[in-house]
């Protein structure tokens, strides 16, 4: 129970259900923007343990979501443009 007023009354407020916790062992993506040759590139690193096939599939989904080009190099996904907000939202929903 939570006291809602300064008076004598108490009101029952149901506690919010705990959100599903992410697996602590899973890698956490590091999403940042970098400037390269005068252009902005969004870089997603920290997923090197996923393997090249899974990284390529993630990059393909992100490229279609952001409607831009991109690549996978040395375990790092690079998406053209400043798309950090869209990519963070995608990772929060899907991983």
Please characterize this protein's 3D structure:
The mean pLDDT is 83. Strands 1-2-4-3 form a four-stranded antiparallel β-sheet, with helices on one face. The chain starts with 29 loop residues before the first strand and ends with a helix. Helices cover 27% and strands 24% of the residues. The radius of gyration is 20 Å and the shape is globular. The chain contains two helices and four strands. The protein has a domain of 65 residues: Translation Initiation Factor Eif1, CATH 3.30.780.10. It is α+β, with helices and mostly antiparallel strands.
Task: Write out key terms for the chains shown.
single chain; 95 residues; alpha+beta; Translation Initiation Factor Eif1; four-stranded antiparallel beta sheet; 4 strands; 27% helix; 24% strand
Short structural description:
By secondary structure, this protein is of the alpha+beta class. It is built from two helices and four strands, in the order ββαββα.
CATH superfamily of the domain at 30-94: SUI1-like domain
Tell me the β content. 15-25%
Q: Specify the biggest β-sheet.
A: 4 strands, antiparallel
Task: Output mean pLDDT.
Answer: 83
Distance between the termini: 34 Å
Shape: globular
Helix content: 25-40%
CATH class of the domain at 30-94: Alpha Beta
CATH architecture title of the domain at 30-94: 2-Layer Sandwich
Radius of gyration: 20 Å
Please provide the ordered H/E string of secondary-structure elements.
EEHEEH
Number of strands: 4
Low-confidence stretches: none
Structural class: alpha+beta
**Number of helices in the DSSP assignment:** 2
Query: Strand arrangement, largest sheet?
Result: 1-2-4-3
CATH topology assignment of the domain at 30-94: Translation Initiation Factor Eif1
């Amino acid at each position: 129970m939570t006291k809602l007023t300064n008076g004598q009354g108490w009101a029952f407020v149901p506690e919010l259900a705990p959100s599903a916790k992410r697996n602590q062992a899973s890698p956490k993506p590091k999403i940042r923007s970098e400037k390269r040759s005068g252009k902005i590139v969004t870089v997603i690193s920290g997923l090197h343990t996923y393997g090249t096939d899974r990284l390529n599939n993630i990059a393909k989904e992100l490229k279609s979501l952001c409607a831009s080009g991109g690549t996978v190099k040395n375990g790092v996904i690079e998406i053209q443009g400043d798309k950090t907000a869209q990519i963070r939202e995608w990772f929060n929903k899907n991983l």
